[in-house]
Design goal:
It contains 9 helices and no strands. By secondary structure, it is mostly helical. 75% of the residues lie in helices and 0% in strands. It is elongated.
């Protein structure tokens, strides 16, 4: 009797192989042959899961986005009674990928961002990821801003956009060694504290 293959599990296994190779070599070093070898599957198995290299990269990018999103949700679930401002700070710190254990993921994420400048399929995936984050951040900023007692009201959508751009920028600055993770955390927390003053 032929062995049943869990197609979705195999796709995730291949996505992990893509991420490991992208971390080591950048996306230009990701070939179907090397992905198959890293995932310990045949070239035919990779090609049955993904018709093209671009389709495989789009899936891998979505896989990274899901992983980061799961961590954000897990951090928020641990303390359901926390304020919206605290939730926003936890989520922003998580997507900044500043912790040492997320350094490889940050390198891979930025490799995909760079490639998205010349790949509409990757750019579309990134836009969808950022739109979902922006929507969540907008809600949290609006909720936190209601009780902040600021003299001037916040523009939640603009602040959410600013926070996403700051998080991405901090990721880059830490990766290239311009900032330490501690300095980046301080900048992020100072920005967040300034929202409620």
């Amino acid at each position: 009797m032929p062995r049943q293959v869990d197609h979705e599990s195999r796709r995730r296994l291949i996505a992990e192989a893509v991420c490991h190779l992208a971390d080591e070599r950048g996306l230009e070093g990701v070939t179907l042959r090397d992905v198959a070898a890293r995932a310990q599957v045949s070239m035919g198995a990779v090609q049955r899961c993904f018709r093209t290299k671009e389709e495989m990269l789009v899936f891998a990018l979505g896989h990274i986005g899901e992983r980061i999103g799961e961590r954000v949700r897990a951090r928020l679930v641990r303390s359901p009674a926390q304020s919206a401002g605290t939730a926003l700070g936890l989520a922003a710190a998580e997507i900044s990928l500043l912790r040492e254990e997320h350094r490889a993921e940050a390198r891979v994420w930025l490799a995909f961002v760079a490639q998205a400048a010349v790949s509409e399929a990757l750019a579309g995936t990134l836009r969808a990821n950022y739109a979902a984050l922006q929507e969540a951040f907008t809600r949290l900023v609006a909720e936190a801003g209601e009780g902040a007692g600021r003299a001037a009201p916040l523009d939640p959508q603009r602040e959410a956009c600013t926070l996403l751009a700051l998080a991405d920028g901090l990721t880059t600055h830490v990766l290239i060694g311009h900032l330490t993770p501690h300095e980046a955390h301080d900048i992020l927390h100072a920005h967040l504290a300034g929202l409620w003053e």
